[in-house]
Every structure is written in C-alpha cells, then in structure tokens.
Design a protein that fits this description.
Elements: E1 2-9, H1 28-42, E2 50-54, H2 57-66, E3 75-78, H3 79-83, H4 86-94, E4 102-107, H5 111-119, H6 124-128, E5 137-144, E6 154-159
Parallel strand pairs: 1-4, 2-3, 2-4
Antiparallel strand pairs: 1-5, 5-6
Helix pairs in contact: 1-2, 4-5
Length: 162
C-alpha cells in the first residue's frame, strides 16, 4: 500500500523574539505563504490522516494556516520535533501507525531537507534540496510499503509560490 509523507519547513518567521527562539512568530509574509502552501498541497493530497507539528510557535502557525485548506483527521504537537535531527525524524517516520496513509510533519531546517534527502530515491529533486529548502516549502514523498521500511520515495518539492 502506498504511503505519503509531507515534510514541511515552517513559513517565514520573525528574526527574533524577546521570549526566545521557540516563541518566534510568522511574519505577515510568512502567514500569506503558509496559506498559499496549504492551497498548493491540497492539490496533491485529499486527506491527511495524521499531522505532527513541532512545538515552536512558527510551526504551529504554519500548520494552522495550511490546514485551512486540508482535511486532517488527527493533529498533535510533538516537542521532540523541535529538537530533532535527521535520525530522529527518520525514527518518527518508521514508528508511524500503519493505518495512516498520509502524514504531514511540520518542522525546521536543516532537518526537513536532510530527512527528505534520506528518504527520497536519488533524483534531480533530491539533489536540488541538498543545501536546504526555503521557508514555506513542503517535500511530498510517496513510496509503496510500510512506514517501517519507508525509503526510496518519489519526491516532489512544493513551494508556496510568489
């Protein structure tokens, strides 16, 4: 059975916050980009079974604005994503519930692009993200099989557009 994973880098956030990095909010441009990204992603996926979102303010805002255009069955904030490296994200993916066919994970760079490269089959799109992805970008990965062996995925890079 086919599985679809959307790895999303949060939209453009303010440079600093008096409350620390965790509390940085989206800028006005970031809010607009998150809405547009949600619209773009909705053209690729009809339904999201599970959304996992970093505990950072900017990722939660990105997800909230994107999800206005998506049908999401279940969503949860996962503090581990805020601190996660590529290996941690790969572990999260391998432990996803098998009944979930489509999962969205909203996090941070350089982890999102690193996990995307690790899970994608070698292709021009994977090479294009070798140095990271811009804010407000989704990596759509699709592969046959289970989450436990999710690898060699077809990769599509979805940006919010101008």
């Amino acid at each position: 059975m086919s599985k679809t994973l959307l790895l999303v880098r949060h939209a453009k956030a303010e440079f600093d916050s008096p409350y620390g990095d965790h509390e940085r909010c989206l800028t006005g441009k970031g809010e607009h980009a998150a809405k547009k990204l949600g619209k773009r992603v909705s053209a690729y996926v009809e339904r999201v079974d599970l959304a996992l979102v970093s505990s950072a303010q900017r990722t939660q805002q990105t997800y909230a604005l994107m999800s206005e255009r998506l049908t999401v069955a279940q969503a949860r904030v996962d503090e581990a994503i805020y601190f996660a490296g590529v290996g941690d994200i790969l572990d999260i993916v391998r432990e996803l519930p098998e009944e979930a066919q489509c999962v969205i994970l909203v996090g941070h760079e350089p982890t999102i692009s690193g996990a995307g490269r690790a899970l994608a089959e070698p292709c021009p799109a994977a090479a294009a993200i070798a140095f990271g992805v811009p804010t407000g970008t989704a990596l759509l990965l699709s592969a046959e099989g289970t989450w436990a062996d999710f690898a060699g995925a077809q990769l599509t890079v979805i940006e919010h557009g101008a």
